Design the sequence.
């Protein structure tokens, strides 16, 4: 047997050496390969067990004879890994496997690449079925593997560890290391170019964050992209993709991170970041203006004041004799230059830069000339981006990329490109050239200006003061908090700041009221860029320091998730506090669900449930700070196109100071959605939101308010209500139907049976799990999402923790009889007993919702 094997393997090897066309998954030293030798097999000499991958000496281009040792996907010919990406060999070059490792060299012996020193001698080189090229020792232990040195691609099952990077290739023909990098950081996955970030996974709408562990590695598998936490078991972030047998994730030569799946030779793109091609840093070359992308690629031009052909990959240069400075690490340092040589060329309005969304300002609350001075003194700064309203100053660092033409950006941001020389240019178009003559001016005048400055400043101060005075009288607010505080502080990440007058204009003097909630009235408005917004005028806050207000606004403004309503800006002027949100064209869920319009179909309801759950899960565990919503109810779930649910009003509870916490407890929470712990002095936690969410789920199922006294539209009330009065407390009905396993009874009769019984059961069971009395028993929102998506097993609600619904139900029917001619909504149920362990509530009392909800 042994001899037979030996015979077989030697003849195998012999065969390979002679013809090079046989499948082999392992080769031994001393072995040499060249592209010539295996020409019949397109250079391939090593295959994985069932042929998914191959190793070849391969030339990806046609122009140049650049050969690389590559691991490739056999069917599609996609290069997965290359050894000598920065040292290509000619067609006569070769790969040599010896006992000390792999060497790639030209025919004349000029070495281009080799494996690092190994701890023992090589026994075999193997290509695994996963696509990993491994050097094995005598005992089949791995000495070196290609998976530890990824180039621009990872395959299914390969771990990309935290702090390792993928580097793009220069082009599809030239595999050498390009300028785009993908890094797995401890909390995210980022794309960078010369150290400047241009995309983050966490900001992508399709990425879903499950937990807050520190990242350990990234992996793709048959169901998506996963980031795993340090202890290896917890998924931190995931992007769910359609099931696929084979997919790869690659940082493309173009600078985009792409996940593609393969079916035979067909390659299908499943995920691309950044999705907008104009956000790739060098898409149009240096200072090239990207105005959009088409099927054929980006549409490039030069900004006003710059010249260069659109086809010119080196980009655009200033048109009037200025030159662009070189960055720090190049031979001519800007620091050595006389700063009076430096000037700034202004880019027009509506121009953005890829790194702005991902970098912190280098200075806050400075004027433009200070911003420019800081840039002038720093050789890595090649341009600035200045926000006039907040005084934020951003730097374009290390290397100048392309400019993005943005249609949505307001006129508040302006970019300036640092330039050198070109003094006294005769054909200076003043509008595009902003000479930095301030320092000269200041130096000359300094000895004489002490008095002058005092005069000017007092004048300016007086002007500002009287202006504010006028403004406040106009607004009708007499005792404003210190008027000098306007623009006195700057907080990173603050969204756009609006003037009260701007919002007055935008809302046509607060004409169209579209809602009112716990914090104030909401008006519809239109910004100058024609985008529709919802402006919330906050009334119930009392006086609060503007800085504290802005700190919270910065937190809320930085929470981005597809299922959360985006805060676009704010106004804090005098005593006015307004929040500007994106406008949701389909209004709030309560109107659609309980209204008399077209009935919400079951699939739409299910999507809304899932979206809301995702939004809440993000608030609870996806952001840096845990945020408890405290007022989850259909009024706060807004709908956009395609019934995408977005949660509004999150984070606002934080606007209340500690001294207002009593107001907080009386104000927040809405009857019917209020968890028992609100009333029993227990701690409020994120599980409080879970309870409210459960109540909302039940309303989605039934299509009517849980507390509705109107049984006429239920069609089933009479049959179940124990008192026979016809008033139904729906959560109790749901519990009873759950006990009987009769879920379809619960469906909104208006759906006329157009429901999926399996999804119906899932929704009801999740809802009952959520409304359990004991907060610890309620699932987290993350597992609610899992259960709704069917990726985690459905929980089993504990009846003993739901018995309180029976008490609520009984009270409800009694209350409804007492309160029949009263306005229905004024009664809620209030368990006084604080001991909830055995579910025995000694006594109940009524409390008016007015007392709970407080003034609204
Ligand atoms: C490989 O070649 C080296 C020197 O050329 C020799 O010392 C060694 O024994 C060879 N190994 C095998 C397995 O043939
Ligand atoms: C490839 O081979 C492995 C064994 O090495 C096997 O488990 C796997 O199912 C095969 N895959 C395919 C797609 O045939
Ligand atoms: C190493 O693996 C090969 C095939 O995978 C096997 O034939 C050989 O017996 C293994 N050697 C040892 C020492 O385990
Ligand atoms: C992919 O990984 C995730 C996370 O470990 C896992 O839940 C999922 O089942 C995996 N998919 C496949 C097809 O193995
Ligand atoms: C690892 O993660 C699991 C799952 O989330 C968790 O239960 C466990 O406590 C973690 N272990 C450590 C050491 O952090
Ligand atoms: C691109 O522009 C640079 C600078 O203006 C110029 O030197 C170069 O010749 C141009 N190249 C092409 C191909 O037009
Ligand atoms: C350029 O400046 C940097 C720091 O500003 C310095 O480290 C570097 O040595 C300088 N290079 C030259 C060529 O002067
Ligand atoms: C900068 O230029 C001005 C005039 O162009 C000159 O007076 C000054 O000495 C220069 N400073 C340095 C540091 O070279
Ligand atoms: C900019 O601010 C600096 C420091 O705050 C001040 O000295 C300078 O006069 C300001 N310049 C302009 C043009 O307002
Ligand atoms: C910047 O804001 C000031 C007032 O805050 C205004 O006078 C000036 O015109 C603005 N500049 C630009 C370029 O918008
Ligand atoms: C100055 O502006 C005019 C009109 O905007 C334009 O025709 C001209 O080419 C510009 N000159 C330079 C040098 O940019």
Sequence:
């Amino acid at each position: 047997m042994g001899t037979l094997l030996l015979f077989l393997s030697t003849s195998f090897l012999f065969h390979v050496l002679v013809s090079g066309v046989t499948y082999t998954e392992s080769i031994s030293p001393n072995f040499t390969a060249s592209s010539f030798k295996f020409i019949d097999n397109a250079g391939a000499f090593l295959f994985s067990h069932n042929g998914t991958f191959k190793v070849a000496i391969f030339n990806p281009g046609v122009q140049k004879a650049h050969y690389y040792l590559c691991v490739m996907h056999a069917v599609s010919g996609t290069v997965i890994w290359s050894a000598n990406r920065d040292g290509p060999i000619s067609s006569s070059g070769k790969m040599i496997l010896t006992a000390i490792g792999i060497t790639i060299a030209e025919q004349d012996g000029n070495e281009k690449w080799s494996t690092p020193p190994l701890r023992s001698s090589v026994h075999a080189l193997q290509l695994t079925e996963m696509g990993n090229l491994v050097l094995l020792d005598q005992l089949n232990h791995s000495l070196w593997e290609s998976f530890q040195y990824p180039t621009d691609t990872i395959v299914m099952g390969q771990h990309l560890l935290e702090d390792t990077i993928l580097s793009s290739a220069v082009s599809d023909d030239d595999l050498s290391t390009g300028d785009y990098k993908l890094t797995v950081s401890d909390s995210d996955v980022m794309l960078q170019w010369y150290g400047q970030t241009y995309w983050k996974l966490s900001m992508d709408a399709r990425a879903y964050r499950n937990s807050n562990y520190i990242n350990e590695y990234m992996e793709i598998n048959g169901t998506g992209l996963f980031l795993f936490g340090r202890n290896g078991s917890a998924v931190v972030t995931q992007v769910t993709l359609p099931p696929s047998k084979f997919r790869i994730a690659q940082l493309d030569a173009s600078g985009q991170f792409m996940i593609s799946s393969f079916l035979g030779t067909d390659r299908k793109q499943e995920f691309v970041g950044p999705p907008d091609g104009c956000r790739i840093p060098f898409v149009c070359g240096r200072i090239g203006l990207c105005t959009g992308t088409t099927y054929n690629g980006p549409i490039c031009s030069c900004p006003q004041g710059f010249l260069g052909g659109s086809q010119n990959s080196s980009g655009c240069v200033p048109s009037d004799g200025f030159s662009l400075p070189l960055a720090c690490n190049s031979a001519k340092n800007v620091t050595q230059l006389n700063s009076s040589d430096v000037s700034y060329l202004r880019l027009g309005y509506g121009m953005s830069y890829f790194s702005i969304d991902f970098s912190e300002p280098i200075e806050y609350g400075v004027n433009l000339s200070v911003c420019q001075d800081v840039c002038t003194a720093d050789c890595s700064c090649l341009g600035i981006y200045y926000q006039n309203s907040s005084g934020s100053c951003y730097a374009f660092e290390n290397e100048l990329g392309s400019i993005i033409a943005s249609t949505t950006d307001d006129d508040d941001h302006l970019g300036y490109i640092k330039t050198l020389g070109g003094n006294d240019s005769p054909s200076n178009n003043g509008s595009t050239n902003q000479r930095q003559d301030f320092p000269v001016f200041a130096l000359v005048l300094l000895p004489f200006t002490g008095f002058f400055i005092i005069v000017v400043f007092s004048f300016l101060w007086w002007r500002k003061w009287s202006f504010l005075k006028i403004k406040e009288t106009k607004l009708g607010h007499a005792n404003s908090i210190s008027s000098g505080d306007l623009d006195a502080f700057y907080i990173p990440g603050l969204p756009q700041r609006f003037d009260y007058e701007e919002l007055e204009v935008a809302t046509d003097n607060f004409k169209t009221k579209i809602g009112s909630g716990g914090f104030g009235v909401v008006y519809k408005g239109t910004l100058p860029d024609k985008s529709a917004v919802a402006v919330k005028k906050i009334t119930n806050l009392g006086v609060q320091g503007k800085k504290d207000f802005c700190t919270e606004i910065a937190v809320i403004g930085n929470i981005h998730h597809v299922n959360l309503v985006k805060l676009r800006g704010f106004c804090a002027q005098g005593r006015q506090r307004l929040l500007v949100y994106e406008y949701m064209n389909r209004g709030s869920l309560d109107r659609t669900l309980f209204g008399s319009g077209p009935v919400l179909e079951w699939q739409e309801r299910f999507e809304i449930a899932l979206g809301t759950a995702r939004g809440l899960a993000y608030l609870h565990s996806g952001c840096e700070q845990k945020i408890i919503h405290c007022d989850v109810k259909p009024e706060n779930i807004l709908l956009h196109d395609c019934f995408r649910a977005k949660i509004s009003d999150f984070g606002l509870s934080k606007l209340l100071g500690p001294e207002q916490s009593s107001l907080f407890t009386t104000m927040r929470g809405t009857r019917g959605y209020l968890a028992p712990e609100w009333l029993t002095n227990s701690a409020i936690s994120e599980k409080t939101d879970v309870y409210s969410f459960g109540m909302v789920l039940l309303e989605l199922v039934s299509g009517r308010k849980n507390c509705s006294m109107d049984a006429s539209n239920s069609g089933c009330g009479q049959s179940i209500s124990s008192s026979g009065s016809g008033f139904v407390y729906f959560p109790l009905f749901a519990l009873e139907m759950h006990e009987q396993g009769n879920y379809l009874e619960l469906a909104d009769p208006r759906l006329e049976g157009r429901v999926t019984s399996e999804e119906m059961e899932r929704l009801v069971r999740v809802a009952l799990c959520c409304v359990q009395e004991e907060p610890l028993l309620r699932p987290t929102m993350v597992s609610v999402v899992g259960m709704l998506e069917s990726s985690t097993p459905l929980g089993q609600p504990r009846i003993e923790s739901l018995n309180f619904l029976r008490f609520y139900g009984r009270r409800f029917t009694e209350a409804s009889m007492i309160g029949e001619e009263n306005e229905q909504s004024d009664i809620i149920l209030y368990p006084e007993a604080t001991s909830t362990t055995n579910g025995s509530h000694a006594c109940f009392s009524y409390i008016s919702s007015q007392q709970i909800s407080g003034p609204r």
